[in-house]
Structure formats: structure tokens, C-alpha cells
Amino acid sequence: MISDKLSSETLTTLFTSIKNKEFSGETNNLEFKEKYGHKNYSEYMRTMAAFANTSGGYLIFGIHDFTQELIGLRDWTH
After folding, report:
1. How far lies 5's CA from each of 13, 34, 47, 54, in Å?
2. 70: helix, coil or strand?
3. Gap between the Cα atoms of 62 and 69, Å rounded
4. How far apart are CA 38 and CA 46, in angstroms?
5. Which pLDDT score, from 0 to 100, does residue 24 have?
6. What pLDDT is recorded for position 53?
7. Residue 17: which residues within 8 A CB-CB, separation 6 or more?
8. Where are the beta strands (DSSP E) in 1-78?
9. CA dihedral sign, ordered 14, 15, 19, 25
10. Cβ–Cβ contacts within 10 Å for residue 31, how many?
11. Kind of pairing between the strands at 30-33 and 58-61
12. Tens digit of each residue's pLDDT (9 = 90 or more) over 7-66
């Protein structure tokens, strides 16, 4: 379902799938974060390094980790 390229079509497919609850949770190439914070930068880098060392992946902010609910980003500066 998810292609290798980060195109508009890929993003539309990905977010439609998330909205329709077609994912049962995070996978080896898909990870959700509820919010973005600079203090968690090293955690994000570890995730991206793991993706880079395997088959790639997506780290998506603004989605609840466990419920996969689209919540958006509110205050992402902390």
C-alpha cells in the first residue's frame, strides 16, 4: 500500500488509511508520535536511523500512538 516515494499520492493513501483505521498499529516501517518536541530529538533520530538501516519507513507526528487517531500538532516547540 505504501510506496517508496514520498509523493502527494503516497501521503494521501497513507493518511486515508490511517483515518479509516486500516492499520492495526505501528509496524517496522511506520511509527506514530502524538506530538513533536525538541527534547525528544534523539528518540526521533534513533527511529529514523532504524528506518534507514532497514527498508525505510515513516515517522508521522500528530497521530495518537495507540489509537491512531489523527489529532494534529498543537504546540510543537517544547
Report:
1. 12, 24, 18, 15
2. strand
3. 9
4. 14
5. 67
6. 92
7. 1, 23
8. 30-33, 58-61
9. positive
10. 20
11. parallel
12. 888 878 887 887 777 776 677 878 888 888 888 899 999 999 999 999 888 888 888 877
Predicted confidence at residue 1, as pLDDT, reads 45
Residue entry with cell 517508496: 4
Q: Using the CB atoms, write b or e for 9-30: b if 16+ within 10 Å.
A: eeeeebeeebeeeeeeeeeeeb
Q: Side chain identity at 2, as an amino acid letter?
A: I
Q: Which three cell numbers stand for residue 9?
A: 499520492
Residue with cell 518536541: 37
C-alpha cell, 32: 506514530
User: Residue 11 in contact with residue 5, Cβ under 8 Å?
Assistant: no
